[in-house]
Amino acid sequence: MRRPFHICSLFAVFGLLMASPGLPASVIALREPAVRPASQSVPGTPADRTNAIEAPPLQAPAPAPGNPVAVVSTSMGDFTIELVTDRAPVSVENFLQYAREGHYGGTVFHRVKPGFMIQGGGFTPSLSEKPTRPPIQNEATNGLRNLRGTVGMARMAALRSATDQFYVNVADNRRLDHTGYSPDEFGYAVFGRVLSGMEVVDRIAAVQTHSTAGMDDVPLEPVIIRSVQIRQ
Q1: Most C-beta atoms within 10 A of its C-beta, which of 53, 108, 109, 206?
Q2: What is the pTM assigned to this prediction?
Q3: Alpha-carbon span 84 to 93, nearest angstrom
């Protein structure tokens, strides 16, 4: 998936926040402080949703005809993702445009939570946030679920705030799925899945992290995205 993942970073994606009186935990999570006011996030702690829309699993060994494939090259290895054009056309086109412009080269996975997700695409190694285009439509209603290996748009608490940041789920994170139309139920849009290199994603998810520059879960050693290359 702008701290599930911009997920305007997604989203968004795990830290437990202290609950505010009178607010349900799900709302607290969606209101989790951003990396900084302009950044995006997916929420804090994973939890199962009970009413998630059922959709065909993203588990085929090869991409569906017509779906673009992107190779994400990082300082810890490469992984390949399929972009699900028919279910998430806006999110896919947004990701493709950033990739083709070279936007992702030299950014980092700035938020890493083992057992949850890795999130990146919006910050440089010095944790400067890159400029973005306007936010896009939130396609969380497309029926795709936040299962292990899926890729989503990170965002802020505002439902339509995703820009450049994306996340990769390293576990089944049903809490991020769309279950309704209130702010705490709307969810985070999945737009792709890892075809190969999930072991690289798992290695990234296991790195040591710390808090710095007002951000939590930042890798001690920057995990750099060297490029995102589109194959088809």
Answers
A1: 109
A2: 0.78
A3: 10
